[in-house]
Amino acid sequence: MLDSVPCLTRLTAQLRRFPGIGEKTAQRLAFFVLKQPRAQVAQLAQALLDVKDKVVFCSRCFHVTEQDPCPFCRAPERDDGLLCVVEQSQDLLAIERGGGYRGRYHVLHGVLSPLDGVGPAELNIPQLVQRVEQGEVRELIVATNFTMEGEATALYLRRLLQRPGLRLTRLAHGVPTGGNLEYLDESTLSGAMARRYEL
Amino acid sequence: MLDSVPCLTRLTAQLRRFPGIGEKTAQRLAFFVLKQPRAQVAQLAQALLDVKDKVVFCSRCFHVTEQDPCPFCRAPERDDGLLCVVEQSQDLLAIERGGGYRGRYHVLHGVLSPLDGVGPAELNIPQLVQRVEQGEVRELIVATNFTMEGEATALYLRRLLQRPGLRLTRLAHGVPTGGNLEYLDESTLSGAMARRYEL
C-alpha cells in the first residue's frame, strides 16, 4: 500500500526483519524516521554500521567488545579461579548488573541444539575446555538459562568438564525476588519446595 | 552496563528514541544487529537515509511521495469533486486499503492543538481552503480520527469551510466490523444506539 513511496516500503521491509517488529510497527517506525531531523537519522545509520565495523568478540571469553581482550578479561582485580559460563553476552551484562560476581566469564553464544546443527564447536566449548585445562579455574559456574536447552547444555558441560579439583556449580534455582507463588510455574515451585532451606 | 562497548551503547540509545521501544527492546535489537551480516545492516542504514533524502510531501495534498505531485493527485481517473481530509499519511493508506474511495486527499499532518502551538497554518489548512475555493470540490469528507482532537478539528473545518454548494461529510461512526458490544466503549455504543437505522 506504500507502493507509491518505494523508500518507505523498503525501510518498512528492513525494520520488519527485527525480532518482535510486525508490519504495523515497522510502518509506524518508518513514518517516525521520516519525521526525524536528517542528522538524527544519519546518526542512527552510522551507529548501525559502527556496531558491525567496530564490535568484535573477545578472543578469550567471546564477550562482545571493541578492544580485545575485553574489559572483563583485562581487569587485573578479577579472580581467575572463578569462571562463569553464560549463553550470551546479554546474560553476562545481566549478571554484572546484579553485582557481586568478581570472576571471569565465558560466553557460549547459544545452547547445544544438535537438530539445528549447533554442537560444542559452534559454542566455543573447545576453548572453554582449554581454559579449564590451564588449571587456574577452581570453580566453573554454569549460568546457562533454566530452559530445556540451557539445562541440557549444563548437563553436557558437567559431563565434559568434571575433573579433580574443579568445583562445578549452577546458579540457585527457585522463587525469584518479588515472585508471586500464585503465578509461578509448577516446575519452579515444586523444585523450590524440594530444595527448601532452614529459616 | 554496555559501557565497555560504546558502539552498542550508542546504537541502543538511538533505537531507544523510537516510539514504543524501551531500554530492553532497544538492547535486544542492538544485539540482533550485531548478529546480522554487514550487507544487511548497510541496507538498513541506506534505507533510513533514503527515506530522509528521497521522500517529500506532495505540494498539492501533502501526502508523502517520491514524485511531486503524488500518485493520488496525478491519477486522472480520480474524482476532483471529492476531497477527503485525513490527519496523517497513514490514514490515507488505511482508506486506500479499505478501497471504494476514488476521490482526492488532503493530509493535515496533525490535529489542532492550540496548547501545543498547532494552529491552522501548521496543518496545511490555508492550502485546504484554497483547494476548496477553486470550486471543483463538491464534497469534503472530513476523515479525522474520532478522538477528542480529531472531532475538534472536524468541527473547526466545518465552521471554516461551510459554503453554498459544498457538502461537508464525516465518516460513519458506530460499531466496527467484528465489534463486540461487551468490549466496546460507552461513547461508541450510546452513539450507535442514537443513530440506529432500519434493518
Automatic annotation (TrEMBL), chains A, B:
<keyword id="KW-0227">DNA damage</keyword>
<comment type="function">
    <text>May play a role in DNA repair. It seems to be involved in an RecBC-independent recombinational process of DNA repair. It may act with RecF and RecO.</text>
</comment>
<protein>
    <recommendedName>
        <fullName>Recombination protein RecR</fullName>
    </recommendedName>
</protein>
<dbReference type="Pfam" id="PF02132">
    <property type="entry name" value="RecR_ZnF"/>
</dbReference>
<feature type="domain" description="Toprim">
    <location>
        <begin position="81"/>
        <end position="176"/>
    </location>
</feature>
<dbReference type="InterPro" id="IPR034137">
    <property type="entry name" value="TOPRIM_RecR"/>
</dbReference>
<dbReference type="Pfam" id="PF21176">
    <property type="entry name" value="RecR_HhH"/>
</dbReference>
<comment type="similarity">
    <text>Belongs to the RecR family.</text>
</comment>
<keyword id="KW-0863">Zinc-finger</keyword>
<dbReference type="GO" id="GO:0006310">
    <property type="term" value="P:DNA recombination"/>
</dbReference>
<keyword id="KW-0862">Zinc</keyword>
<dbReference type="Pfam" id="PF21175">
    <property type="entry name" value="RecR_C"/>
</dbReference>
<dbReference type="InterPro" id="IPR000093">
    <property type="entry name" value="DNA_Rcmb_RecR"/>
</dbReference>
<dbReference type="InterPro" id="IPR006171">
    <property type="entry name" value="TOPRIM_dom"/>
</dbReference>
<keyword id="KW-0234">DNA repair</keyword>
<dbReference type="InterPro" id="IPR023627">
    <property type="entry name" value="Rcmb_RecR"/>
</dbReference>
<keyword id="KW-0233">DNA recombination</keyword>
<feature type="zinc finger region" description="C4-type">
    <location>
        <begin position="58"/>
        <end position="73"/>
    </location>
</feature>
<dbReference type="Pfam" id="PF13662">
    <property type="entry name" value="Toprim_4"/>
</dbReference>
<dbReference type="GO" id="GO:0003677">
    <property type="term" value="F:DNA binding"/>
</dbReference>
<dbReference type="GO" id="GO:0008270">
    <property type="term" value="F:zinc ion binding"/>
</dbReference>
<dbReference type="GO" id="GO:0006281">
    <property type="term" value="P:DNA repair"/>
</dbReference>
<keyword id="KW-0479">Metal-binding</keyword>
<dbReference type="InterPro" id="IPR015967">
    <property type="entry name" value="Rcmb_RecR_Znf"/>
</dbReference>
